[in-house]
Structure formats: structure tokens, C-alpha cells
Amino acid sequence: YTQAKALVYSKYGEPKDVLNLHKHSISAPHGTQVNLRLLAAPMNPADVNQIQGVYPSKPPFETSLGTVEPSAVGGNEGAFEVISTGAGVKNLSKGDWVIMKRTGLGTWRTHAQLDESQLIRIENKEGLTPLQIGTVSVNPVTAYRMIRDFCDWDWMRAGEEWMIQNGANSGVGRAAIQLGREWGIKTLNVVRQRKTPEETEALKQELKELGATVVVTEEEMLTGSFRDMVKEVTRQGREPIRLALNCVGGKNATALAKTLSPDSHMVTYGAMSKQPVALPSGLLIFKNLVFDGFWVSRWGDKNPQLKENTIKDVLQLIRTGRFKDIPVDNVEWNWKSEGPQLAENVQGTLGGYRSGKGVFTF
Ligand code: NDP
After folding, report:
1. What is the pLDDT of residue 158?
2. Which InterPro entries does UniProt cross-reference here (predicted)?
């Protein structure tokens, strides 16, 4: 038996109120079962929404971990190490690093027992860290697919076309900047102003070092001079802005849409401001803009092989030093960690103006 602890919830609510640390034991793996140890699992905004009960995918509440009430384990992505395998396991062995094929399996746990079929083995893990593997399947995959699947690549002229995005300092935003740089797409990036001008400047500089072409604050974007600035950097529109990535909504999203050239796409993938997306009718009538949404969970379930290939591509960029780590706030989870303290870290995820993404490491 392996002793294990998991952050579970049996009703929806705020993470600090409903998450409990549940201790249980895991038996030796049978058949195609695999026993795993946590390496690193991030706290993503969607994980909190899921616990609040406001996210469309809801993991089933079960008693399989021996909880008094039927419960679900929090977290949707992470890197794990194989510690033992059942006799029927074909493609995994002790010491392999794996990630989960689908979301919703619960990753905030020190150990897990899953079926081989639920796991993706990381080939050639040398040169990669648990953090890189534990955060590859949601944010970078989202950025990658939104850029590849909503741009007309036949039309694109490398180095002369743009994309614009808000939430540019998020995990997805940083991935989009770096993929844009790799693929010859200039990026106009919008972030929220920080407390001091120095901090704002430092954030702009940080994103430029990742490859951002231009970084502006939301406040700058919402002033009258933004239009002229866009004209100037895009050489009076000769370098068209073909794609907008929106994870904020509200006025911010409207301002992004207004910069797009005719027939371009705006892909909405988040709603951090909780404000609806409002669109001037002219953008639809005269510019023929297309407004799409993207949800990586559904996309991944429909395209499992393409998802694996996308992950492999990103990991290859990481190995060759062309894709930098996101800033993180490491939360070390050990045997002494208490439930309320771990839950408090989850609670902070939607706080805003954070220095890094919270990541559990074990
Ligand atoms: P991170 O945790 O890395 O970053 C959060 C981002 O949200 C920061 O840029 C932060 O900016 C911004 N933010 C927080 N609160 C607000 C607010 N009130 N108004 C405007 N911006 C705000 O996020 P992720 O990269 O993991 O996720 C970013 C977004 O993308 C989320 O909305 C998430 O749900 C969504 N997402 C969607 C996916 C999909 O498939 N549709 C997949 C992955 C993510 P600041 O630093 O200024 O606070």
C-alpha cells in the first residue's frame, strides 16, 4: 500500500471553504493500472471555477478514495512519475514521467492510481523539468491551437502580419507571444497597468524579452491615441492585424476587435473581467469579422492525437531553449502540509496582479 493525500471537495463553493485534505491508501496496481507520484500540478483559473460549480465540465463525485461523502479531486493538469505498474501495463515503466490524457481526472494529490490508457508518456524527458511538463497541456496548447486554427496561413506573410491579445502576461498569453515569435507573427500585447510606472515598465520589458513586438496597458489602449499608435506600428495598416485572442471581455475586448483588419477572427477563450463581449455592429457588417470561441478541453477530447502532437511540438521548443518557463509561485506539498493552507493557495488563483501561477510540487 502507498499512503496518499488528495485535495477533494464534496460540494461546490469557494476553495477555502470546500476543499479538504483527504488521507487514503492506494493498493498495488493490478492489470493495466499504474501508480503515480505527483511531480508538479498548477492551479489554473478554470480549476477554481470548477470547484465553485460554475464551470461547464464537472468531474463526478465518487467514493472510490474512501471519502465519507462522494467527492472529486481538484486540479486538471500535472506531471506525475510512475512508481509501479500492473502486470498488464505495456508502454509505461517505473521512473517514466506522464501527464493525463484528459482533464477532469484530479491532479491535486500526492499519489494516484490510474489506468495506462488515461496517461501520455513523456518521451525523452531529459532536459525537461516537472514544471514544464506539468503546465504544457493547457496553456501552451490553447495558445498554439488558437493561432494555428483561426488564422489563414495561406494568406499570412511572415514578419508582416500581426495578432493582438489581452491578458498577455497570463500563461496562455506568454505562450502566444513565444509561438508568434517562432512563427513570424508580430504581437500587440495588452496587460493591466501595475501599481507603479516602474512595475508596469518591468512587465512590458519582461514580455518583450519573450518576443513581444509591442506591449501596451489596458489603460493606454482605452485612450484616444491608441488608434494612431496602432496605425503607426502596423505601417498605416499595411501590416494587417489578423487575429485577436481575448481572455478578458468587456471594453477591453471591444477595443481589440476594433483593431482587426477585414475578415479577421477574434477568438474568445476566457472571461477574466466577467464582463460580456459587446460588439459594434459595423465590425460585423462592414468588416466581416468572425467571432469564435475556443475550449481546449473539448478540442483535446475530439482531437487526442493532434493534442499529443501539439504537446510534443511545444516540448521540443522548450528543450531547445526557445520557450521560456512561466513565472511560478511554488507551493511545496509535503507530509506536513495542512489542508487549509493548501486550500488558501488555491483560493488566491483568481486574485489578479499575481507574480506567478501557483504550482503544487511534491
Ligand atoms: P494565469 O493564471 O496565468 O493568468 C491570469 C491572467 O488573467 C493574468 O493575465 C491576469 O492579469 C488576468 N486577470 C485576472 N483578473 C483579471 C481581471 N479582473 N480583468 C482582466 N484580467 C484579469 O491564467 P491562464 O493563462 O491559466 O488563463 C488565462 C485565461 O485563459 C483564463 O481566463 C482561463 O480561464 C483561460 N483559459 C481558457 C482555456 C480554454 O480552453 N478556453 C484554456 C486555458 C486558459 P493581471 O496580472 O493583470 O491580474
Report:
1. 84
2. ADH-like_C (IPR013149), ADH-like_N (IPR013154), ER (IPR020843), GroES-like_sf (IPR011032), Mito_Enoyl-ACP_Reductase (IPR051034), NAD(P)-bd_dom_sf (IPR036291)
Ligand 1: centre distance to CA 311 (Å): 20
Q: What is the per-residue DSSP string for 105-144?
A: S---BSEEEEEGGGEEE-SS-TT--HHHHHTSTTHHHHHH
Q: Is the CB of 189 under 6 A from ligand 1?
A: no
| pLDDT digit string, tens, across residues 328-348 | 999 999 999 999 999 999 999
- Choosing from 179, 246, 247 the residue with most ligand 1 atoms within 8 A of its CB, the one to mutate for a pocket test is 247
Does the model's pTM come out above 0.95?
yes
- CATH number for the region 152-296 comes to 3.40.50.720
* Residue 122 pLDDT: 98
CB contact at 8 A, 218 and 252: yes
Q: Spell out the domain ranges in the chain.
A: 2-135+326-361, 152-296
Q: Is there a shared CATH topology between the 2-135+326-361 domain and the 152-296 domain?
A: no
Q: Which of 302, 299, 356 minimizes the C-alpha distance to 144?
A: 299
Distance CA 355, CA 350 (A): 12
With a 6 Å cutoff on the Cβ, whether 245 touches ligand 1 is no
So what's the pLDDT on residue 36? 98
Q: Does the structure's ipTM exceed the value 0.95? A: yes
What CATH class has 2-135+326-361? Answer: alpha beta
